[in-house]
Structure formats: C-alpha cells, structure tokens
User: Fold this.
Amino acid sequence: MKIPDALQIVSETHTGMVRLHNEDSVNFDTALGLAVLADGMGGHNAGEIASSIAVSVVCVEIRHHLGSIRPEKKDVVSGEDFGVKLLREKVQKANASIFHAAANQPQYSGMGTTIVAALFYANRVAVAHVGDSRMYRLRGKIFEKMTRDHSWVQEQIDNGLISPEDAYNSPNKNLITRAMGIKAEVEPELQVFDVQVGDIYLLCTDGLNNMVEDKEIGAMLQSLKADLPLASKQLIQLANNNGGRDNVSVILVKVNGKFSRPFGWLANLFTWSKN
Assistant:
C-alpha cells in the first residue's frame, strides 16, 4: 500500500485566547508521509518568521530529495536510514537559515523556534525535534510521549529533583535549553519507531500540553480516534477552554495500513501504468 492510502493526516492551529499573533507554523504532505510543526519565539512577530522558515525549509528540501532516493536506503558512511540523515541535515539547514536571517536583519535579532518533524516510510517513523514541541503516540489504549523535551524542567526530572506532576505546574516549564536559530549550529534529537496499523501520532506545540494534562489528551484521542478532523479541533478547544495562554497547534497522523513508497523512475512507471 502506498503512503497516501495508508496514512490520514490532519492539522489545526489557533492563536489561543491571550496572544495577539500566531507564531506557530504547521505543514504536512500525505504523499510523502511528512509532518512538520514549529513554535516560534521572538519580538515584533519574529517568532512567526522563524517558525515559518523552519517548516518551509524542511518541507521543501525533503520533498526535493525524496524524489530520487528511498528513505529506508542505508547511508554508506553512517549506516543510518537516509530518511534519518535527511531529517537531521534539513533541520540543520533550516537552523542556519534562521540564524543568518536574524544576524542580517535587526528586527529579527534573537528570533528562534522549536521544531518537531516526522517522516513515515517503510512501516516506521523517523522523528527529529529541537526544543519542547512534542510527538505522542496512541497505540491501543496506551498513550505515551515519544520525544524528550529540551527544557529546564525536563532536566530537573531527569536529575530526580522534581516529579512530572511538579513539572506540569512549574512556573519555569517554558524555559527551553535548545532551540533553532539561536546559534549557528544545532543538533536535533532523532529517533526511529516501528509503526502499527491503528497507531495515531500527535505532534503538538506546548500550547496544548501546557494547558492540558497528558491523560486528558490521551482520553480525548481515544474517544475521537474514528474522526481525526474532529479530534484535532477538540484538542485545540480543550486547550483554549483551559485558558489558551499560548498559540496551540496539532498535527494528527493515523496509520490505516502498512505502507511503502515508490520513487524516481519506479514512481513514474507506476503512474504511467495507471493511465
């Protein structure tokens, strides 16, 4: 089965109930199995610029390169999947673009963004993230966070100084320790997971998980998993009902079947044979 038939992807974004501008950016491409979300920061709408650059560069670059090379192909030097290498390199390229824009245009000085990008291929998903935008997975009745925040409170949790419950209520939970565009280089965290039919993946900015506890997010997804567009809208509404103190964005990806993807001349041959 091809990816467009095996995956359903929907997204929603909202300014929230307090902020005047939406500095989140989201994009996805079902045909590529690609979903990207970013949460910008910086004054004078610079956060919107940073997140937009991040999402645009990653999507355009990956779309260009996946026209000729299969993402499950192994890199001869590193031995990792080409899809993983591609995510890393394009996040780093986006970081450089943001950094240089901020350096050359005073009104964008200090701008940055988080990012979480997921690439689905060959019955698995590679995810790259920087900052505290997250990816979750609902598998059966189990809802769990698949990424680890690059944040001050996460470091406190890792060091046993506070509990996850304390972290949720911490006044410092918005302090991130890694972001795109702040330095000339950044190292995204990358992971690869096998996917199963029926899985639902949630990519979100912290405007959701700072307003809604994980167990509530999981329960909402569980109850509305048959209607992904409604689920995305209700998650946004839940965050806003709880105060909506930040922009809030979600991307939901549902795995409806096993998948592979034809590329290059194979893709052209497939398309020609269907005409």
About this structure: The radius of gyration is 18 Å. The CA atoms of residues 99 and 183 lie 6 Å apart.
